[in-house]
């Protein structure tokens, strides 16, 4: 059984197959599937930190920090090496996919 | 889908699970979720396999060298025989904003090794005050 | 009706528990060296601490979580580790200073040297924590701590000129010794906005099982309790200004500070000072030791609670035991208690960014606090604390070297 420690994955930089930086893994959304709890999507980028804390930018006295985090569905991420998580498609394909 | 267990439908791993307070069946505090292990599967989304608790798990998050140092200390001077306590995800009864409840009794797990040791070797010998839950300690004996 | 009683008790314990060795040492120096000129850091610090304490209590009442618990859970271990280590150091220093205060008070009435009292005082403080429940500790030390109102009474008796008091509440530049002036100003702030108090207050609210219905009580306690509590510090500065400064006594030693009540209370002044100092410091020592234990236990998720039998939270008890013993060694090995206190107060001010920033993030978390999130005023004040504390952190290090003598 191949396993990965989530706490070591958190905060890692993610690159696409062309080697370009996409962002950092700052949160992972999961949900029930039968008896299990499975990963649904990954949230990348600095804005995700604020999302994680549930803060909306307006509350922090007008600081322009709130940007939509990049959402990556589970099947487009390769996390078999937790120190080097990889996007399976290119950044453009990801943005187009939205 | 009916849910017997108190698990929300939409979970955020870092926010809701990692570093969360872990409690046992009786809501006794056991420790925190120091680590979370995912199982990778071919063609299917990764699933949560188990949570991990222990000083070495915490140390590893800071650096591998620190983990080795902490583990070495535990082997030589520590009381815990098992470095990492692993609780399968199926043992999770409930997850709220302030705790994650496991279907275990804290005293049966390695997380309470130090508590037990201190109780048996130190506190036993000091006259105790009359505060606290006297009946609870008898239940746990 | 029960809420009214809680409010009254909360106010009394805040007033009685406000004054500690830090307030005493900084007030004596401020009054002795600069008379009434340094009332403004006290006023500023009081306003800021009222907001911070109110937020701390509101947070605990709404989420039923104490701050260290919430910071690790919601911001993560990596974010909490730095503040946690720094806070632990600060706890250690403050505890040493408070124990030093109790030892000095005992030295005043018995003549036996200060280091002699270090271990007995440590044992007394430990025994108090071991045997007593949370509310019993809080109520006894804080209600007895009302004896510190003696400073207010003495100040009143001296009839200080109102114009000078009002002038002192506005920031002014020093006429002499600027390094020392700013050092004492920073220390005064650090003595009022003590990091451990914020954490302790939130843990105490959880121990007292506060819920959302206590938000009003919390507001009353923070505003009235802290407000009146700071009057005691004002009283201390006034008596130091009136009694010490004209005689050129700069309160470089606790023995000099001990003279402040002797003019207003010729017969009892000395003893009253010792009693006020001893009781205030004992109350504070128990709080700091508990705060250290709460913070450590919550960080690692151990069982905690002063109302629990030690058999149920052995590690929690181990922390306060170890903390008391370790910090008493500072006094045992002859560290000057007044110098330790002044240094610690400056450090308190310097580490405020580590306290205020995580706090600011949590107080704006809608998911946690729902409609009890910070309003713009509370946010503005907290941001002010963050900015001010970063400035203080940068400024206080050279000041420590130059002004601390």
Walk me through the structure:
- Chain A is of the alpha+beta class.
- Helix content of chain A is 17%, strand content 38%.
- The model of chain A is unreliable at 54-64 (pLDDT under 50).
- In chain B, the strands form two sheets. Chain B has a four-stranded mixed sheet, with no helix packed on it.
- Chain B is α+β, with helices and mostly antiparallel strands and 141 residues long.
- Chain B is built from five helices and eight strands.
- Mean pLDDT of chain B is 85; it is low at 133-141.
- Helices cover 77% and strands 0% of the residues of chain C.
- Chain C is built from 19 helices and no strands.
- Chain C has helices at 2-18, 21-34, 39-63, 67-75, 77-110, 118-131, 134-144, 150-157, 162-168, 178-192, 195-207, 215-244, 254-257, 269-300, 314-332, 337-350, 352-363, 366-369, 376-403.
- In chain C, helix 2 (21-34) packs across helix 16, helix 4 runs antiparallel to helix 5 (77-110) and helix 11 packs across helix 14.
- The chains are: A alpha+beta (98), B alpha+beta (141), C mainly alpha (405).
- The interface between A and B is medium-sized, with 30 and 30 residues.
SSE pattern of chain A, N- to C-terminal? EHEEEHEEEH
- The total of helices of chain C stands at 19
Shape of chain C: globular
Question: Ends of chain A: how far apart?
Answer: 32 Å
> Roughly how much helix do the residues of chain A carry, as a percent range?
10-25%
> Which class do the helix and strand fractions of chain A yield?
alpha+beta
Strand content of chain A: 35-45%
Low-confidence stretches of chain C: none
Outline of chain A: globular
Largest sheet of chain A: 4 strands, antiparallel
Number of E strands of chain C: 0
For the termini of chain C, the CA-CA separation is 52 Å
* Overall pLDDT of chain C: 90
In terms of quaternary structure, the protein is: heterotrimer
Largest interface by Cβ-Cβ < 8 Å: B-C, 33 and 33 residues
**Rg of chain C:** 20 Å
The total strand number of chain A stands at 7
**Contiguous runs where pLDDT drops below 50 for at least 5 residues of chain A:** 54-64
Classification by helices and strands of chain C = mainly alpha
